[in-house]
Amino acid sequence: MVEIVNDVYNLDFFYSQTLLPLKNRLKKKKDFERIFKSGKGIKEDFLFLKWAPNNLKISRFGFMVGKKISKMATLRNKIRRRLREQVRLRLPKIKKGIDGILVANPGLETRDFWEMEETLNKLFEKAKLYKS
């Protein structure tokens, strides 16, 4: 019989190391509306980035993947997860005090993880969101 040790299979630790932290996610409708109303925007390939400063010491991001991309929720969620992971990996390099929304446009569903990574790098560099 195999004995499972809780320390090895601690899901809280696993998720804290592999997911974009909740404090770095935009969730409220008013935040999305504020960014779309007063923020700056830039487009690269099949991604659109809209961002605005916030008065916090952290940067937060939201993700929008519409039904124009796919009617299948599983595919839209996969794209959302990939974008979230790309942002999580870049979070230490991104300036503090920024709220951003990444909007996926049709065609992104055909891109792989590495193509998304290149596009996101170009977006963040154009927007000058990386720390100097």
CATH class: Alpha Beta
Number of contiguous helices: 4
CATH topology: Ribosomal Protein S5, domain 2
Structural class: alpha+beta
The overall pLDDT, averaged over residues, is 89
Fraction in beta strands: 15-25%
Shape: globular
The level of helicity is 25-40%
Number of domains: 1
Please report the total strand number as a whole number: 4
Biggest sheet details: 4 strands, mixed
Rg (CA only): 16 Å
CATH architecture: 2-Layer Sandwich
Physical arrangement of strands within the biggest beta sheet? 1-2-4-3
Provide the low-confidence segments as ranges: none
- In angstroms, what separates the terminal alpha carbons? 54 Å
How do the SSEs run, as a string of H and E? HHEEEHEH
Report on the structure:
The protein has 132 residues and is an alpha+beta fold. The protein has one domain: Ribosomal Protein S5, domain 2, CATH 3.30.230.10. Helix 3 links the parallel strand 3 and strand 4. The N and C termini lie far apart (54 Å). The relative contact order is 0.21.
